[in-house]
Amino acid sequence: MLIELLKVILLGIVEGITEWLPISSTGHMILVDEFIKLNVTPEFKEMFFVVIQLGAILAVVLLYFNKLNPFARNKDKLEKRETMSIWFKVIVGIVPAGVLGVLFDDWLDAHFYNYLTVAITLIVYGILFIIVENNNKDKLPRIRNFKELDYKTVLGIGFFQVLALIPGTSRSGATIIGAILLGTSRSVAAEFSFFLSIPVMFGASLLKMRKFGFIFTSEELILLIVGMVVAFLVSVVAIKFLMKYIKNNDFKAFGWYRIILGAIVLGYFLVLG
Questions:
Q1: Rounded to an integer, what is the distance from CA 184 to the centroid of its chain?
Q2: 39, 73 in Cβ contact below 8 A?
Q3: CB neighbours (10 Å) of residue 102?
Q4: Over the stretch 159-176, which tens digit does the pLDDT of each residue have?
Q5: Distance between CA atoms of 165 and 151, rounded to whole angstroms?
Q6: Which residue, among 53, 44, 6, has the nearest Cα to 26 in the 3D structure?
Q7: 3-state class (DSSP) for residue 232
């Protein structure tokens, strides 16, 4: 049990960091598990890799609680309407991935949860990050705050989020690339990506737990709770780091990281294969 707890703590750290940086949390979780081999049933592991993300999502709720709370006493009527507007935009933004995720969940699990998919998507989207940042280097964003974020752009970002149904893509990476291509600033792209994650991951977690059956052994429940708590604590730090980082930096460093990691993963498994 102690060894499995240590593995779960490591996975929680990986989840907390990679959920918010555009480098693919699911991809990293699959890769880490290739080496540490969490000793649980395949059904629990499939559910765990998704539900552990709830801990990371709660970090967003904590850090942005006032901004996302339309009933906050310190807000006037206009501010409350603006907060509700953010939520309406989030709802529109999650529709494409929500619909397709429900329809193709089992098929995606069966065909794409493997090292080859992760390696390829890490490399492809790493290249895209560098290309997008180079092309936007001298362009001023047309959308610099949530008031300027229109529903057409929101729906477009939502379709980019569909790409993240493939492991290794990175949900935050897909939405951030999409948002920047559609004219948002990096800070708006990152924050809107955070907000989209709340209903998406709650929905995905509910789907996985329903599929699993909501029945846990005591050991499974402990592992899940520990993983979520660690992911929550690490996520608080990771989100603060990212928002500070993008004030003075672009996303190309993450692009290069993805390319290098993808190449290492591809080479490693090809040699072993």
A1: 19
A2: no
A3: 11
A4: 999 988 888 888 888 999
A5: 22
A6: 53
A7: helix
Q: Using CA atoms, how far apart are residues 72 and 86, in angstroms rounded to an integer?
A: 14
The answer, as to whether pTM is greater than 0.85, is yes
Cβ(209)–Cβ(47) below 8 Å: yes
Going by C-alpha positions, the residue among 256, 269, 271 that lies closest to residue 114 is: 269
Q: Residue 273: what pLDDT?
A: 59
Cβ atoms of residues 163 and 174 within 8 Å: yes
C-beta separation of 143 from 184 below 8 A: yes
Q: How far apart are CA 213 and CA 43, in angstroms?
A: 10
In the block, which residue shows the tokens 């729906």?
155
Contact 166, 97 (CB under 8 A): no
pLDDT score for 30: 76
Amino acid, res. 155: L
Q: Which residue has the tokens 């789907």?
A: 207
Rounded to the nearest integer, the mean pLDDT of the chain is: 90
Contact (Cβ atoms closer than 8 angstroms) between residue 77 and residue 221: no
Run of H or E including 21: none
pLDDT digits (tens, 9 = 90+) for 78-106: 999 999 999 999 999 999 988 887 788 77
238 confidence band (pLDDT: 50, 70, 90): very high
